[in-house]
Q: What sequence folds into this?
């Protein structure tokens, strides 16, 4: 008898989950909740952050009924494939490795890179026409800006973190400039402060905290995104859900056009992370 | 350091931590009971006169002491879910998502793993009971069952207590592994808090204090029980 009751309890557990998802018409979006400012929890236990706001806005644009659920990073892709939820918005970069298992919408956030220099260095006055360089296709203005950087940096030494896309960019687009490689971003910034290098080329998200600690550091030149630097962060989806993917992609496109994506990213990151193309 | 993060309610993380501690404690209790159950069953298997049961017991303790608990959790949680879903789709044509209750699966995994250690502790304790005690019991006409309940178990339990106290401490700490499948205990709260506020040192330090607190309380409780269990022994002082 005890065994029968036990199996009934277990069955009811399963059945509750079974029906819970079987008749769900809402799109469930998973996020991690521990990756500020992309997605995190406030002290009241609510999910907040750039992606939580973005998910709401995208669903409104795409006329979808959405629900945001919390999922630890480990197992976030297998659980998508197993249909625990329908989409992932968790600061997940679009990579070829991940694309073997799932598909991505177009990117909604990129990690722009810039040069960090000391205010006392002559590079602080480097004047470049374009504010942005959007790889891989450069327009004539952007090509001219590359020439301007080359001219300003003649005889200067630029630090990069070794084996990064940052290093790859420098070698491909600015091969004439002397490079010095560092094992960590922190060591590079320390050498910048010690004037062993004239500039460091790295993510704005790394430069900002350094600027807060040391007010003689500043950022110069265009912010560089796309192409060789990676495709940015997108909504992760099951491969077969092409309809949902198109809906998310076009909602992102329309938020890029009306400027709301740029505004939202400035609100959470302090700088514009919206993709340029 | 922003100490307002440690407030109670909607402005601080202390209430989340408290719930986490209750969850850590309750999943540990359930896991420990499961561990004791497996320990008693497999210790008897390993001491059995049947060769097949002895082999079964040896395989259990060798395998589960040999593989990391993390793997057991991955296997049961992800593997178990996948198995259940494939059964559901094969039998009922249902291809949605079926989840396993994290609390039960987590307690089962930790209990199963530590059960292998409990087995050895209990086996050692049973072997420590002097043969003469059992022979005396049989000679006054007790049945096997009576000997087990009246003579063997009370003495073996006394020998097993210190070892089981150790296993309890292991179980307490191992529950932190379940945080990776989303079970909200102390470590998961600390991870969420650290990632959300960018103050990992503060949050993991609090997690450390809470675990120390639980360990300290349990140590005191086990000392009490050990002292009580030795009431009948002659004091050596």
A:
């Amino acid at each position: 008898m005890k065994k029968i009751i036990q199996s009934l309890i277990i069955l009811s557990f399963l059945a509750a989950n079974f029906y819970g998802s079987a008749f769900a018409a809402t799109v469930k979006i998973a996020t991690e909740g521990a990756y500020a400012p992309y997605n995190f929890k406030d002290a009241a236990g609510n999910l907040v952050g750039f992606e939580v706001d973005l998910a709401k806005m995208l669903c409104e644009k795409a006329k979808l009924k959405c629900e945001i659920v919390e999922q630890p990073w480990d197992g976030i892709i297998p659980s998508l494939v197993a249909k625990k939820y329908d989409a992932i918005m968790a600061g997940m970069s679009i990579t070829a490795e991940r694309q073997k298992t799932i598909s991505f919408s177009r990117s909604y956030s990129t990690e722009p890179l810039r040069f960090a220099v000391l205010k006392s260095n002559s590079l602080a006055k480097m004047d470049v026409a374009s504010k942005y360089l959007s790889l891989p296709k450069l327009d004539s203005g952007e090509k001219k800006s590359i020439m301007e950087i080359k001219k300003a940096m003649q005889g200067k030494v630029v630090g990069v973190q070794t084996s990064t896309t940052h290093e790859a960019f420098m070698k491909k687009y600015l091969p004439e400039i002397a490079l010095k490689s560092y094992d960590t971003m922190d060591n590079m910034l320390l050498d910048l402060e010690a004037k062993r290098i004239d500039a460091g080329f790295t993510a704005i998200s790394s430069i900002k905290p350094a600027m807060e600690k040391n007010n003689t550091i500043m950022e110069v030149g265009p912010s560089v995104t796309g192409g060789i630097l990676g495709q940015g962060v997108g909504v992760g989806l099951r491969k077969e859900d092409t309809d949902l993917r198109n809906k998310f992609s076009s909602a992102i496109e329309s938020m890029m056009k009306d400027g709301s994506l740029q505004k939202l990213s400035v609100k959470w990151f302090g700088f514009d992370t919206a993709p340029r193309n | 350091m922003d100490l307002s993060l440690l407030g109670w309610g909607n402005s601080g993380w202390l209430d989340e931590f408290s719930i986490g501690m209750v969850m850590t404690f309750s999943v540990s209790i359930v896991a420990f009971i499961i561990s004791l159950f497996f320990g008693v069953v497999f210790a008897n298997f390993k001491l059995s006169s049947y060769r097949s049961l002895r082999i079964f017991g040896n395989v259990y303790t060798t395998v589960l002491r040999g593989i990391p608990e993390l793997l057991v959790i991955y296997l049961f949680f992800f593997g178990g879910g996948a198995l259940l879903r494939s059964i559901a789709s094969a039998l009922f044509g249902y291809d949605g998502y079926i989840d396993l209750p994290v609390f039960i699966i987590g307690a089962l995994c930790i209990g199963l793993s530590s059960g292998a250690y409990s087995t050895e502790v209990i086996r050692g304790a049973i072997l420590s009971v002097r043969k003469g005690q059992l022979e005396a019991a049989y000679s006054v006409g007790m049945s096997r069952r009576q000997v087990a309940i009246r003579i063997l178990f009370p003495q073996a339990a006394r020998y097993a207590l210190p070892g089981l106290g150790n296993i309890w401490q292991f179980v307490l700490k191992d529950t932190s592994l379940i945080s990776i499948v989303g079970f909200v205990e102390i470590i998961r709260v600390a991870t969420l808090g650290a990632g959300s506020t960018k103050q990992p040192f503060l949050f993991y330090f609090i997690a450390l204090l809470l675990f120390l607190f639980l360990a300290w309380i349990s140590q005191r409780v086990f000392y009490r029980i050990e002292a009580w269990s030795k009431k009948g022994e002659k004091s050596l002082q």
